[in-house]
Amino acid sequence: MNNVASILILAFLALTFLQSGYEKIFYWNDNVTWLKEHFSKTKLKNHVPLALGHLLIVELISGILCVVGGIQLFTNNGREFGFYGAIFSCISLLMMLFGQRLAKDYDGARTIVIYFIPAVMAVYWLN
């Protein structure tokens, strides 16, 4: 098995984004309330539910593609689904990074970079 590192990163990304999507779906109102306060001094303050909905969709696409990509990589060494899962993961993280920087939450932005590094590694390895 030559793809262990790639499969592990895809599993990490899948868990990250599927769990995040789950929390957004089942705790929608709590998330919207918290984020409205978080973005109260930004241009996003009146668009939080719409922005959160867009992020939710991209996160779910990311997580599903990473699961399918990990299975594909394990079963037949195919890289297409994992590659696109990694790309969508990077897009999700860039969306979050933009929001954190807009809200001037630099600690939150720094945390997102920690997730971005393995996502970019996955894009590189699966390309």
Radius of gyration: 15 Å
Give the tally of structural domains: 1
Order of helices and strands: HHHHH
User: Could you tell me the mean pLDDT?
Assistant: 97
Strand content: under 5%
What's the story with the biggest beta sheet? none
Which overall shape is indicated by the principal axes computed on the Cα atoms?
A: elongated
Number of strands: 0
User: End-to-end distance, in Å?
Assistant: 18 Å
Number of helical segments with 4 or more residues: 5
Proportion of residues in helical segments? over 70%
Structural class: mainly alpha
* Unreliable runs: none
Oligomer category: single chain
What's this, in brief?
The protein is mainly α. It has helices spanning 4-26, 28-38, 48-76, 80-102, 106-126.
Q: What descriptive keywords fit this protein?
A:
single chain, 127 residues, mainly alpha, 0% strand
What's the helix and strand layout?
Elements: H1 4-26, H2 28-38, H3 48-76, H4 80-102, H5 106-126
Description:
The protein is mainly α and 127 residues long. The chain has one domain (4-126). 84% of the residues lie in helices and 0% in strands. The chain has helices at 4-26, 28-38, 48-76, 80-102, 106-126. The chain starts with a helix and ends with a helix. The model has no long low-confidence stretch (mean pLDDT 97). This is DoxX protein. Keywords: Membrane, Transmembrane, Transmembrane helix. It comes from Flavobacterium phragmitis. The chain crosses the membrane at residues 51-74, 81-102, 108-126.
